[in-house]
Each structure stands twice: as structure tokens, then as C-alpha cells.
Amino acid sequence: MSDLLIVDSVTKSYAFGGLFGRGTFKAVDNVSFTLEAARPEIFTIVGESGSGKTTLARMILNLIAPTSGTIRFRGTDLNAIRGSRARMDFMRHVQPIFQNPFEVFNPLKKVDHYLFMTARRFAGASKTAEVEAHADAALQKVGLSLAEVKGRFPHELSGGQLQRTAIARALIPGPSLLVADEPVSMVDASLRMSIVNLFRTLRDDLRVSIIYITHDLATAYYISDRIIIMQKGVVVESGPARQVLDNPQHPYSILLKESVLSPETIGEGILGLARHTGEGPPEASAEGGAATRTLAQPRSS
Amino acid sequence: MVKANGKAGNGPVPAEPILSVRNLRAYYQMQYFGIDREVRAVDDITLQVNRNEIYGVAGESSCGKTSLIKTIAAANRPPLNVIGGSVKYSFLDRDIFRMSEEELSRVRWKHLSYIMQGSMNVLNPVRRIRKSFIDFAFRHINKPEREFFDIVARHLERLRLSPSVLKAYPHELSGGMRQRVTIALATICRPEFIIADEPTTALDVVVQKDVLAMIREVQQEMGSSILFVTHDMTVHANMADRLGIMYAGRLVEEAPTREIFANPLHPYTAHLIQSLPRIGDLSPKKALPGAPPNLSDPPAGCRFHPRCPLAMDICRRENPALTALRPGHRVACFAASSEVRPVSEIRETVPPKVAEARS
């Protein structure tokens, strides 16, 4: 059992339409990849909205079942997990981190409630002191402490602190896999890198594998080991992150990379080029004048 | 419409202001159990937006960006009250706060329009898009209905939307198309001034680039000015002509975009720029310690001092004023301005200091 997670030709399709014109829509289409247990890594899934990345994450978390294909976690087929004991055991090893930390926590409950509840259910702690020790240990791993969080309501913490608390909660059961769905897109710019750097620490120090779902190619490049790029449910390109992003091959990956705005292109009129995705000069259509006008502005300083 | 080149390098161009905000202060004033509480969301902001310019406002969530633009558009409602200062538009004969609701409604959309963040929340979900166009623009354009829809169709085509979207309900359109419809609504009357509040935050990268390109194109074609608000510095880098950085309700730095990226003087700006991840760059990025302050109880002195690697004694006591250290480049920082050194030297020494911040 050297494989942590095997996703084997997984497809999820949804039916739409009524009596007439019934059709199916493949949200995830024949996706396969493997994470090794011996080598924890940050595995990134990149794609635009509607590309099926969240559906895939939900299947890995066993929240929805694939239409076809199998997902095995440490050799166990997720479909075969029956009964609360087996489910709890699975949840102990695979934990989610969600996008918006402000929505994850109930605003009327204190944040520590979630930490204590997770410690009671998964870490087998029952005495208050034990529960608090578990919560504090997990918070220390993310650079917080129980003293900072205890008795606080979600609105009293910043977005970065809340997201780190959410990660601490996910760490209490001692998971081997975290599934993080757009974990930094709602976090302030000055705190974003603290979360991203934290993932790296978790991988190196706690040897936790992380499935990092994002549409932000820049942070993906910064932390991931391997990457898959999805478009409309299909994996169009996969491989080591730097290699893929430095030199993308598939037209969609190239388009994605070209769409990433960078501070290096200040005043180069890059936004005027949005329509034209790589292939040669902008075609001269009736609207060509309008499309190229923005480029004609000299932007020298 | 050739753009007046108000770029860095050639000093302060005597550009024609379309909006001037002077010492604007707007606080949320609330009462809890008889105790007055004030949240100073907009605190003493002075800025100027020139004709035919995109002015970017950057800052984190809850730094007061949205409060600022609501106040500037006179769309603030209690508990957000204007405490002091003035907001003047060149197309209005007096301060916007002195105008009656009725006078304002004649100006809105026609001269001053607003592209809002969540396009799904802006468009009425139970009305077809054509009805929204009637609601927004019919009385401003003041033409017979057939002619009005000719204008609308031509405008939609210019934004590369098929006029058939007029028949659709908002939920039938994709996120990018809806955002383009809101841009069409905001620009149909060819307003002089457009406020854009995080117009692309909910969109993915490919659509985002498209929508931004469209906003730029419309702006250049109409020669209007945009106050563009987002927290995303990479968007600002490619959109804004000038950039103002907000922190905790105050403007801490303002300069032409190229200048601010090449040569940030405020440690907060320097951090924001330095911590941007880029493709092809693997150098470790530091996160700023601490958290943004609570605006109902902001720290004394400079509001950034608890997180600032350069904080000195004076920063804890006094509030630095926004002063022009170089032509067109204003900054509110004692560390950047107190140095008795030629300005050219500050350029080299300040950013590295931030880089080796004690952690």
C-alpha cells in the first residue's frame, strides 16, 4: 500500500433537461492520477470556473460518488465505505479546507467550538484539558495559539487568522491528505502568502499531502510539486508544476498562462491583446480598428 | 480622442481634474446599548482623478475601499455618514453632498456611473436584460423606444455581446457575459466618470483579462475617467494609470503605476508588491506579521506601525501626513520622508530594508 490516493478514470456526469432534449453533462471526464504515500506533495488542480475542479475535490472527499471509475484511498474504494465507523475513519485521514473562511464558521458560535468538537470526535479526547491541549497543538502548527483564538467569534479574527484556524481544525485528527478548495482567494493580500507558505511547512514538517485547487497560476507555480490543468472536466495537461507552467504545451494551458496578469507588463498594453490568443497578429476585421486601438497608445515613460 | 500622457517621468502634468476629493471623512456611527461607536472607514482622504485617466485604489478587505467609493458617489446611507470634506466633480456646479436626491438621480448613470462587483446581485433576476436597460437608461437617453433599443444594440455589439442577450434573464448568461452586461449598462449613457468596484474579482483568469480589456477599451474610446477599485495588485499593474494605496481607512501612498511598482516608498506598498507570486519566480515570499487593524479602535499614530518593520518612536505617536516626496508621488510615512538623504538614495535603500524585515 504505497499509494495514498488513486484516482482511476473517474467520471461524474449530471443529467439535465426535462422530458424532451434530455442530455448528460460530464463535469469530470475520465480523470486519473495517483498520490504516493511515501512522498508527500502539493498536488495542484488548475482550471477556470466550470472546469470540474470542485466536483473532483468533492469526490475525493467522498461527498459525492463518481458515476464511473474508482477512487481508492490507501487501498480502500471510497464506494465501499459504509457505516459511520468507516466514514469517521476516512474523515480522520482526509480533511477539507474551504474557500471562504467567513462562511465556514457559524458567526454565532465561537471559533474554538469547532476545534474542540473535532478534538472530541477524532482525537479521542474527552477531558477539557486534553481537548484544549489538542486544539492548542494544532493551532501552534499554523502559527497561532489557543490563547489568541479561545472565546473569540469569527468576526473578531482576520481572514488570514480564520483560514489558519480552519487549517488547524483540519489538522487535529492527524490527516494524511488535505483537500483545499481555493483556500486563498478570499484572504487579504498581505496575509495570503502566510497561508501559502503554511502549506509548504505542512508538507515538509508534518508530511501531509495537499490537493490544492486554484485558478491562480502564480501561487500554483510558487508552491506545487505536480499540477494538472483541467478544462471542461478533462485533464488537458499534467506534470511537474514548474515544467508545465514554464513551458505549457496544450493550447488551453497556453491561454491560461497568457491570461495571467503580471506586474512585469505594466503599461505594455497587454489588456488590448486579450482577444488574440497567441496565433499571430490580430486579424484585421471590421472591428480591427477598435480592437487594436488600445495597442496604439505609446506607453513609454 | 488622444490621451493626454499623464505618465511618470515628465513631472506633474497640469492635467484637468474631473474629481477632486478634499479631506473626506466618513464614519460608520452606531449606537450599541446607548454607547456611541465609530468606525473610521474613510479618514481624511484627499485625491484627484484627472480626465481620461484610470485611477486605481488598492487595499485589503475592510480597509475602507468600498466606503470610500460609496461616499464619492454620494450613495452612502446611514450608519455611514460623511463627517467632513468635499467631493467635487467638474461636471457638477457644486459639492455632491449639497445636491438633492432628485438632482443626483439626474446625474447618476448619465454622468456618474458605477460598475458593481457581483453582477448577479446587480441585475434583477426576474427581469429580462432589456427591462434593466429601460430601468437604467431610458429616461437619460430620452429617445423613442425603437431608437433607444437601436442605441442599446449598437452599444452591446461594441462590447461584443449579441443583442439577443436583451431577451435573456440574468441566470441564462455566463458570469463573464453578465459582467459585460453590467459594463454595458454602466457605459450606455457615455458617462464622464465611472466607478468600478472589484469588477472582475469573481471571474476566472481568462474571462477576467477579457473583461478588463473591454473596460479599458470603452474608457479610451469614450475618454471617460475610471476610479478602479480592487485588492489585486496585478490587475492594477495592467489597468491603472495612477494608483492609490489604502490602509485602514487612509491613503498611504499615491503615484503613477509604473513608479509605484518600481519604487514603492511606503513599507506596506513595498510588501504588497514584493509578496506577489509570479510565474518563473521561486524566491520565498514573506507574509506580513499581524493583522489589519480594527477600524473602530485604530492604533494611535501611523495605523500601520504595529506591523511595520521600520516603525520608529514617532510612528507610535503621530500620524504621518501624505506628502509629495517626488513629483506626483505622495506617501504617508515617517521612515520614507524623515531620511536626510537625497531622494535618489531613498529609492535604493527603502525596499531592501523591508525585505530583510525581522520576523
TrEMBL record, chain A:
The keyword Ligase does not apply. It comes from Chelativorans petroleitrophicus. It comes from the Bacteria. It holds the Pfam family ABC_tran. The keyword Nucleotide-binding applies. Coiled coil: none annotated. InterPro entries: AAA+_ATPase, ABC_transporter-like_ATP-bd, P-loop_NTPase. Residues 279-291 have a biased composition (Low complexity). CDD domains: ABC_NikE_OppD_transporters (cd03257). One of its GO terms (molecular function) is ATP hydrolysis activity. Keywords: ATP-binding, Nucleotide-binding. Residues 275-301 are annotated as: Disordered. This is ABC transporter ATP-binding protein. Residues 5-257 form the ABC transporter domain.
From TrEMBL, chain B:
InterPro entries: AAA+_ATPase (IPR003593), ABC_transporter-like_ATP-bd (IPR003439), ABC_transporter-like_CS (IPR017871), Oligopep_ABC_C (IPR013563), P-loop_NTPase (IPR027417). Keywords: ATP-binding, Nucleotide-binding, Transport. SUPFAM superfamilies: P-loop containing nucleoside triphosphate hydrolases. PROSITE patterns: ABC_TRANSPORTER_1, ABC_TRANSPORTER_2. It comes from the Bacteria. It is a peripheral membrane protein. It holds the Pfam family ABC_tran. One of its GO terms (molecular function) is ATP binding. Residues 19-273 form the ABC transporter domain. One of its GO terms (biological process) is transmembrane transport. It is found in: Cell inner membrane. GO terms for cellular component: plasma membrane. Belongs to the ABC transporter superfamily. This is ABC transporter ATP-binding protein.
